[in-house]
Every structure is written in structure tokens, then in C-alpha cells.
Automatic annotation (TrEMBL):
<feature type="domain" description="Lipid/polyisoprenoid-binding YceI-like">
    <location>
        <begin position="23"/>
        <end position="177"/>
    </location>
</feature>
<dbReference type="InterPro" id="IPR007372">
    <property type="entry name" value="Lipid/polyisoprenoid-bd_YceI"/>
</dbReference>
<protein>
    <submittedName>
        <fullName>YceI family protein</fullName>
    </submittedName>
</protein>
<dbReference type="Pfam" id="PF04264">
    <property type="entry name" value="YceI"/>
</dbReference>
<dbReference type="InterPro" id="IPR036761">
    <property type="entry name" value="TTHA0802/YceI-like_sf"/>
</dbReference>
Length: 186
């Protein structure tokens, strides 16, 4: 009887620590990038977006955002350039089919503005990146957007050269629909 009572108390305490978080299903996503090459700005996109987005504006510290894109979907508008960038020297799409991003910390700044710390993995290299985010919720929908700059050489994408810049600007916009409210632990 005493063990059953202790078990009941433990279960109740665990339940009191449970917090509902909102799960958002991506309905549309765009991932674009730009880089200077031969004095011009080259833009491109990645497709094959997949993401798990758990976010409640009342508890930004409990947010869990993870997403990835398919490396082989790289598109710059020129087929020869696309194929070149998918080769081993650049993205090595055959060996590393996905680029991934996973949040480690989200902090509210003001209104719909947040700052996120993420682990970005390209090829076999993972580095921390800080991304200013905007998360706008309207009823059962929300739009997550952010833009950041990275150094492609940090991820072993190509080599240093005179023609191609090292800084790449990446923009991510994800439109979502609320699907469930899973329970997570505080």
C-alpha cells in the first residue's frame, strides 16, 4: 500500500511538470542562398525541406526546431553550375544528401522577434550559428523566418579563391499549420 501511494505521488508530480507545447507542420518552405562570384551575386535554392517545429510563444525556452534540406536539390538556374556544386569539392551530394539545422536555444527579444542558437551541419561539419528569427502566429498558422551569414570554408564547401566569395547569406521561410499539442517535460 505504501509503495502504491508513493508511485501515485510520483506520477502526479511528473504530470504537474508536464507542459503542453505546440507542434507545427510545415506546409511550405523556401531556403535560399546568395554568394558573390566573379563580381556578381549568385542566388540559389535548396528543396526537399523536412522539419520538426515545436514552439509556444509563451515558453520560447522550450522550443525545439529542427530542419533539413536535400543537398541534391540545389538550384541556381544554370544546370552546369548546379552539377558542379553537387560534386565532392563543394556539397558532395552523393555522400552527404542532407544539410541540417537544430536549435539548442531560443530566446524572445520582443514581440515576434527571437534569437536562436542552432547547430548547422553541412557535409560532416557541425558548427554553432546564431540566427535572428521572426515567428508570427495567426490562429492555427505560423510563419518562421530567419536569415544568417556563414563562411562556406568553415564547412569545407569549395576552396578559397579570388573569384568566389567566402560569405554566404542564407534565408529560411517556413509556413506552418498547427497539428497537435504534445506533452514535454519542463
Amino acid at each position: 500500500m505504501k509503495n502504491a501511494f508513493l508511485t501515485l505521488i510520483t506520477v502526479l508530480l511528473i504530470d504537474l511538470c508536464a507542459v503542453a507545447q505546440i507542434n507545427w507542420k510545415p506546409t511550405k518552405a523556401t531556403v535560399t542562398f546568395s554568394i558573390r562570384n566573379a563580381g556578381l551575386t549568385v542566388t540559389g535554392t535548396f528543396g526537399g525541406f523536412s522539419g520538426d517545429l515545436i514552439f509556444d510563444p509563451a515558453m520560447p525556452g522550450k522550443t525545439q526546431l529542427s530542419a533539413s534540406v536535400e543537398t541534391g536539390t540545389l538550384e541556381t538556374g544554370i544546370g552546369l553550375r548546379n552539377n558542379h556544386l553537387k560534386k565532392k569539392e563543394y556539397f558532395d551530394a552523393a555522400t552527404y544528401p542532407r544539410i541540417s539545422l537544430r536549435s539548442t536555444r531560443i530566446e524572445r527579444q520582443e514581440n515576434d522577434a527571437y534569437t536562436g542558437t542552432f547547430e548547422l551541419t553541412i557535409k560532416n561539419t557541425t558548427r554553432a550559428v546564431t540566427i535572428p528569427l521572426t515567428i508570427v502566429q495567426k490562429g492555427m498558422t505560423a510563419t518562421f523566418s530567419g536569415q544568417f551569414t556563414l563562411n562556406r570554408l568553415d564547412y569545407k564547401v569549395g576552396k578559397s579563391g579570388l573569384l568566389m566569395g567566402n560569405e554566404v547569406t542564407v534565408q529560411v521561410v517556413v509556413q506552418t499549420q498547427q497539428v497537435t499539442t504534445p506533452v514535454t517535460k519542463r
